[in-house]
Design brief:
Strand 1 and strand 2 form a beta hairpin. The chain is mostly helical. It is built from 17 helices and 9 strands. The radius of gyration is 26 Å and the shape is flat. The termini are far apart. It has 2 domains: 177 residues, no CATH class; 244 residues, no CATH class. This is Integral membrane protein. Keywords: Membrane, Transmembrane, Transmembrane helix. InterPro entries: DUF6350.
Length: 438
């Protein structure tokens, strides 16, 4: 982007990269804010708020924008009840589905800035954009504070930079095509100067980490499918809650959008449920395949789909992370990077021993990678509604990570051990098809 000197088409001085980054950040902040304001205005237009004053709605919009970015809000008017349950009165349950909006806007900005920058100049654009976005967050936190909602200005300034900065880096990397073009460091050249053993070890651990990612991605996909089936089965209960609320078309649409914003959180909750760790819907409650005990729930339609009652065969859901581990083990076999098995085979001649040990080590590493990733997802998905019992919502990160790590590890061992048989079956079917063609 360049500044024009006049309207004749002659280009003037190039726009400084820090200024272009600042404009991109301001554009992303305004667009994401408008997307938050739109449903609030729609509800206000249908007299959906008891207090429809402009400044009240403006504060609500700003607080919603901060919550979408992951900024915790201290509810000063929460009363003494949260303290009796060990809560802090903090609203920290982030709608991860809506957090994708600033992430995608930042991804677009990162691509545009990468096209406008040389390798050693991108930091100028990034620094300018991050400074403006941090200032926007701090200003929003300062303006939208109230007697009932206390906002930490440091959180308001720094926390929104996490999804925004991550989106910009991913977008810039996508546009550059490689990290070497993006930051000027040639990773391939650096790796080529290391020893062969170091390269093999790096490839092995990197492939094990990728296998953990494959396992978690597969488990989330299966958990999302189970969540869809559960919503279909309990659809009559969900509709009954909608009818009881009688929010009207606009209010119902706004409630649906809010629930869709929490859809990624619900998928992570479903993963925790299938792992056996379960998740909490309030202090002292637990929902899981081995037993469900929850107290009174707020009138939120999607909560009516929580499985309850007799769950005699719910333990079958525990196979979901194991199946995901089987997929990861098979993927690792096809990747062909089991250098630890090759090294162990050179040192020890007993093949039954080396194959068993290398497969078990792979299961431990794959399960560990999947468990760590699950811990991060569970930590992001959980939170507090800040009121009453609802100061603890979602899975326990450590407990869920341990369950997923153990189940995925077992699945990786099975998948890697059965991989050669699956490959032979696949090769045999291809050969049969070729013979039929001839």
């Amino acid at each position: 982007m360049k500044l024009r000197a006049d309207q004749t088409g002659n280009r003037g001085l190039p726009m400084p990269l820090w200024l272009q980054g600042a404009l991109e950040a301001a554009q992303a902040a305004i667009i994401s804010a408008l997307m938050v304001v739109a449903p609030i205005v729609a509800v206000w237009a249908t007299a959906g708020f008891m207090n429809g004053q402009f400044e009240v709605l403006a504060r609500l919009a700003g607080q919603s924008w901060l919550l979408v970015h992951g900024v915790p809000l201290q509810l000063a008017g929460a009363g003494p009840e949260p303290a009796t349950h060990g809560g802090s009165g903090v609203l920290s349950l982030t709608p991860m589905g809506l957090t994708v909006i600033p992430f995608l806007l930042a991804w677009r900005a990162g691509r545009r800035l990468a096209r406008a920058s040389y390798t050693d100049q991108l930091w100028q654009a990034l620094l300018g954009s991050w400074a403006v976005y941090a200032a926007f967050g701090a200003a929003t936190g300062f303006v939208c504070r109230s007697a009932d909602v206390v906002i930490n200005l440091w959180y308001a300034m720094l926390v929104p930079l996490v999804p925004f900065g991550l989106g910009m880096v991913v977008g810039a990397r996508r546009e550059a095509g490689s990290w070497s073009r993006l930051i000027g460091v040639d990773a391939v050249d650096w790796i080529s100067r290391t020893s062969q053993h170091s390269r093999w070890a790096g490839s092995y651990f990197a492939s094990a980490a990728k296998a953990g990612f494959v396992a978690v991605a597969s488990a989330l996909t299966l958990a999302a499918a189970l969540l869809a089936v559960d919503l279909f089965i309990h659809w009559n209960l969900v509709v009954s809650v909608y009818e009881g609320l009688d929010a009207g078309p606009v209010g119902g649409a706004a409630l649906t959008i809010a629930q869709l914003g929490f859809l990624p959180n619900l998928v992570v909750f479903a993963l925790a449920w299938t792992s056996g760790a379960g998740f909490a819907v309030g202090v002292g409650s637990q929902a899981g395949p081995l037993g469900t005990a929850v107290g009174p729930l707020p009138s939120i339609p999607v909560l009516a789909a929580i499985p309850s009652g007799s769950l005699d065969y719910a333990f079958v859901a525990l196979i979901v992370p194991v199946l995901a581990g089987v997929m990861a083990g098979w993927w690792f076999l096809r990747e062909g990077e089991n250098h630890f098995d090759e090294w162990l085979s050179i040192k020890v001649r007993a093949r039954w021993f080396t194959a068993s040990v290398s497969t078990l080590v792979l299961g431990v590493l794959g399960g560990l990678a999947a468990g760590l990733l699950t811990v991060c997802l569970a930590w992001l998905a959980r939170g507090s509604a800040g009121l009453g019992r609802l100061t603890a919502i979602g899975p326990d990160p450590l407990w869920t990570g341990l369950w997923v790590a153990a189940e995925v590890g077992a699945g990786v061992v099975i998948g890697y051990a059965a991989g050669p048989w699956l490959e032979r079956e696949k090769t045999g079917s291809v050969e049969q098809d070729a013979e039929l063609v001839h």
